[in-house]
Amino acid sequence: MLTLHCPNCGVDADETDLHAEGEAHLKRYGPGSSDDEFHDYLFQRQNPKGVHFERWKHVFGCGKYFHAARCTATLEVFGTYSAQTLEPTQAIKDAISAKRPGWSWGDIS
Amino acid sequence: MSTRLASGGRLVNKNKAVSFTFNGKNLRGFEGDTLASALLANDQMLIGRSFKYHRPRGVVASGAEEPNGLVNLGEGAKFEPNQRVTTTELYEGLTAKSQNHWPSLEFDVGAINTHLSRFLPAGFYYKMFIHPRPLWKHVYEPIIRHSAGLGKAPKDRDEDTYEHYHASFDVVVVGGGIAGLAAALSAGQSGARVMLVEQTNDWGGRANVDTPTVDGKPAAEWINATLQVLENMENVTLRLRTQGSGVYDHGYVLAYERLTDHAPETEGPRHRLWRIRTKQIVTATGAIERPLSFAGNDIPGVLLAAAVRDYAVNFGVSIGDRTVVVTNNDDAYRTGITLKKAGLEVPAIIDARTNPQGELIDEARALGIRIEVGRGIAKVKGGKRVTSVEMCNQAGEGAVVEEIACDCVAMSGGWSPVVHLWSHCGGKLNWDDAQAMFRPDPERPPLGADGEGFVKTAGVANGHLFTAEVIADGFAAGRAVAKAAGHSAKIGQAPAGHDAHEGAISPVWLMPQGASHALRSKAWLDYQNDVKVSDVQLAAQEGYESVEHAKRYTTIGMATDQGKLSNINGLATLAKSLNADIPNVGTTTFRPPYTPISLSSIAGAAKGDLFQPIRKTPMSDWHTENGADYEPVGQWRRPYAYVRDGETVHDAVNREVVNTREKLGLLDASTLGKLVVKGPDAGKFLNMMYTNMMATLPIGKCRYGLMCSENGFLSDDGVVARIDEDTWLCHTTTGGAERIHAWMEDWLQCEWWDWKVYVANVTEQLAQVAVVGPNARKLLEKLGGMDVSKETLPFMQWADGKLGGFDARVYRISFSGELSYEIAVPASQGRAFWDALLAAGEEFGVMPYGTEALHIMRAEKGFIMIGDETDGTIIPQDLNLQWALSKKKEDYLGKRAQERSHMTDPNRWKLVGLETTDGSVIPDGAYAIAEGDNANGQRNTQGRVTSTYYSPTLKKGIAMGLVHNGPDRMGEVIEFYKVDGTTVAATIVDQVFYDKEGAKNNV
Question: Taking Cα atoms as reference points, which of B108, B125, B145 lies closest to residue B555?
Fold first, then answer.
């Protein structure tokens, strides 16, 4: 039962107030993309043991989405941040580096 | 015999007798007894039968770890099986019945299994019943099902109430022994908000029985004084009868409070589940004594040594007149000393160690108790009760040195810290060789959200067996967790404890060390599931090297006690058989809850009417008063049909369809989802959401739209109306409103966050009524106030106005093929509007209709229904809806997916109409059969039915279905399997069965 800080409304929300919304920072591929690109966008997901980025929705709260960076092995939360960004903020990356030096996730490190 | 002593019994009130029954026998105990102590006081040693061999079973423990003493408790709506007698407090009128025997507890036919035990080894069921395969289903399983199961399943609905408490604290301390009290004291003094829970009804834990001193005074005095201090601290919450059941991620704790189990006639909820968020946790959960593995250690009268003295000190009950103590540690000597001082006989203390030294041994010797060192028990004799023990040398193979008559054996194999809560969330353990126990590794605690440990363990649970360390450890832990939670006010002096000095334990995993197979196959590890030393050794021999596999193969630790007594002995036996070290074999996983909690407490108040909210439209009361037969649609209840006196539901549906087609029908359509999408980019946004073009929809017009997932599959449909330059109103299906709203928000917040669009779900703001049928316009004209003529309000347009004085938005849309208006009014006017329509419509033959009539009429017109024609694998092209897929748009959600080769495959099944040749109704979901069988020997198929009804309009069965190359096979007859295995023939026809040219709506 995680507790995540909602950066939109400022509440430390219980997992029962939240809804997991899958992997963060997916790049959408639409018409014109190759079959491989579209397949990867739709189906291929990271399954890391360690640093991971996810989308969450404060569904029984402010109703807004946000991003969370956490460790799938220890459930440590490195931080939460706005949903309106294409990659983690520098502050989040620094927070992860402090705890998990040398981490990487997809193209992000 | 077991009996009540003249003296002793600190928990019982001997002035207050309590009557109860066991297997119909009237018995008496005292206020303060547990069911276990009361039964024992009445010499009721035999309490149940074991699971596999139906061996006689008596209590072996005095607390939550008890594996044997399980009963069917209570009657009728208060009946509950598998209740532990050791944790059931006695109350007036309690009724208990023993379990797992037939025909009676004293004489049980199933006990024959014990003589068959050498044919029923570990893994017997796996080995025996694998071949021949068909026998499993028809012979073995029914027999096993008949004999399986301990208690009886309740027959009546539970009449008690239950509740959840949500709470947050800085510190939760689990366990109200001296370590827990000390931890709560220092944490409370530090300024933290503390909750201290204790599963029993008694603060102080073992210190009440073993009577060490604290700060120079008897422990009981310190316990009482500390409680008074804690009770006066506003920041400390104390709860007895409350078990810390589980520790979960990020400081979530479940505590299980049994409010009225001890007094069932009390008003209020029976159990309360505390759902706690805490910054820090202290587990001061104590330890559980281990049995010793010797032959006959399961015979009633063999108990844990500490349990024997618990019954004597706490309840004034002696288990027997002559008690032999058998041990590998000093602590068990306390039992001999306690019993001797109570005037009972202790024929011998049998100590497996060769040279034990310590204050307790000296004390026992001084009391004149015979002490046999280097000895063990070869075998306990007796059937339903211990009669004697055969003493042997521990180092030997079981040659009998002497038979000692006795009626109780008090055994101790040492203590195992209760590490369950520490381990629930990932805390790791170390093996302590000197003390022969697993204890928490403080360097590897469960980690919280910040990556730091959030659980500390204290006292005996931390592997400290002596009072001085226990109480100091508890006090320090409380201080530390309070500090970690941000509280560090000045605290008082740590209490100083003292008890008798003890010598070292010597681990004994088998008694005697070289016990023969005959002895090993009578040496129990798991009393409830009947797992013996020989079973675990066999599992090891057969290659079950992982402790998790061996557990499942032998079923050790899988009973309702979850191996509280058996796990450590079992894995030590496994380790020895594998020639491995205990820490290398490791433990099985500790999972919450610590002991079983009631299912009802988990449900809490969420049952019956409170299970989930039921959404009601403003017209709901009218429906109920007029015979509505409801069906659930999402969280709504919609009238399926309005059933009149003398009608069946089917009659009512047919009447409603015919009346609507011929005269006038009303449908409460308020449940349809209504989403307002507004903003400068709303048109662009809806072009992405829908497959068809929405940005170009003229103001005042309506358009039917489809929505797909990114995977291309149809997800929802509905009519969209353009309200003004930057506002659209999107209708969704009844069940889809919240889902589609969330879907829109997802794209707006996470993908196109720079688009200026706002979405509001206004479903419940509006009541909506469909006025349907040839007389629909007449009714609206009679109400007056708006021009609803064909010229002013043609099909697929809407208008705002005052209709009969109501604030109305009238959409001219039709899901039935009839002349039809859907009229939205503010929800507050909904019921009055409905009543006005009914009153004014009387002369036109008005009649409300339900969802089934709606479904039939849409099927007669060949309209699809989300959830019938779609199932998450259907694309619009399958349903001949190409016309609704915009070719002008570069992109919409699902467009790219629909370009994939599988989606454009001409062999996809496509929608057609189906008419049975005999006029009957095809069963829903029926498959059309094709020639030949598939690779699994199943008949090949070429299509399936998606909607099927009796059409009262056409007076025959009609259906829609997806058929291979269906649209190209008009007129062809195909066969569908019916449920009974016969087939029905149906002709492939156009999906529109009624009014193909649309004349009825074109008026």
Answer: B125
Closest Cα in chain A, distance from residue B617 (Å): 23
Residue B277: per-residue pLDDT: 97
SS3 at position B323: strand
Enter the ipTM. 0.98
B797 and B788 Cβ atoms separated by less than 8 Å: no
H/E run at residue B226: helix B219-231
Of how many residues is chain A composed?
109
Token code pair at residue B122: 């570990």
DSSP A17: G
Q: Is B252 an interface residue toward A (CB < 8 Å)?
A: yes
Chain B residue closest to A80 (CA)? B449
Task: Locate the chain B residue with the closest alpha carbon to A39.
Answer: B897
A84/B750 Cβ within 8 A: yes
Distance of CA B647 to the CA centre of its chain: 42
Q: In the sheet where B400-405 sits, what is the strand order? A: B375-382, B386-393, B400-405
Bridge partners (DSSP) listed for residue B987:
B915, B973
Encode pLDDT of B876-908 as tens digits. 999 999 999 999 999 999 999 999 999 999 999
> What is the rounded CA–CA span in Å between residue B462 and residue B470?
8
The boundaries of the domain holding residue A32 are 3-99
Q: Looking at residues B314-327, what average pLDDT do you find?
A: 98
pLDDT number for residue B121: 72
Give the least confident one: B115-124, B517-526, B588-597, B648-657.
Answer: B115-124
Among B234-243, B365-374, B578-587, B658-667, whose mean pLDDT is lowest? B578-587
**What is the phi-psi region of residue B414: left when phi exceeds 0, alpha when psi lies from -120 to 50, beta otherwise?**
left
Structural domain harbouring B559: 523-583
Instruction: Tell me what the mean pLDDT of segment B267-287 comes to.
Output: 97
Please, are residues B364 and B279 in contact by the beta-carbon 8 Å criterion?
no
Q: Is residue B119 part of a domain?
A: no
Question: What is the widest separation between alpha-carbon atoms in chain B?
Answer: 114
Is A51 contained in some domain? yes
Could you tell me where the beta strands, DSSP code E, fall in B862-955?
A: 909-916, 927-933, 939-951
Facing residue for B711 by CB, picked from A42, A71, A74: A42
Record the pTM: 0.91
Kindly state whether B739 is in contact with chain A, defined as any CB-CB distance less than 8 angstroms: no
**What digits encode the pLDDT tens for the residues B922-957?**
999 999 999 999 999 999 999 999 999 999 999 999
Say which CATH number the domain at B402 has.
3.50.50.60
User: Using N-to-C axis directions, what is the helix angle for B305-315 and B333-341, rounded to 10°?
Assistant: 30
Q: Find, in chain A, the residue whose alpha carbon is nearest to that of B889.
A: A31
CATH number of the domain that residue B80 is part of: 3.10.20.440
Query: Chain A interface residues facing chain B, Cβ-Cβ under 8 Å?
Result: 1-3, 14, 21, 28-33, 35, 38, 42, 55, 57, 59, 63-65, 71, 74-77, 83-84, 99
CB contact under 8 A, A30 and B250: no
Mean pLDDT confidence for B420-424: 97
Considering only CB atoms, B249 lies closest to which of A1, A30, A38, namely A1
Residues B188 and B247 in one domain: yes
> What six digits make up the tokens of B273?
């589940």
Answer yes or no: is pLDDT of B711 > 70.
Answer: yes
pLDDT of residue B148 exceeding 60, the answer is: no
* CATH of residue A92: 3.30.2270.10
Shared domain check, B812 and B663? yes
Q: What are B417's two structure tokens?
A: 């810290």
* Res B475: pLDDT: 98
| CA-based nearest residue to B912, from B833, B990, B846 | B990
Task: Verify whether the Cβ–Cβ distance B897 to A42 is below 8 Å.
Answer: yes
**Residues B316 and B397 grouped into a single domain:** yes
Q: How far is A20 from chain B (nearest CA, A)?
A: 12
Give the one of B451, B890, B896 whose C-beta lies nearest to A99's C-beta: B451
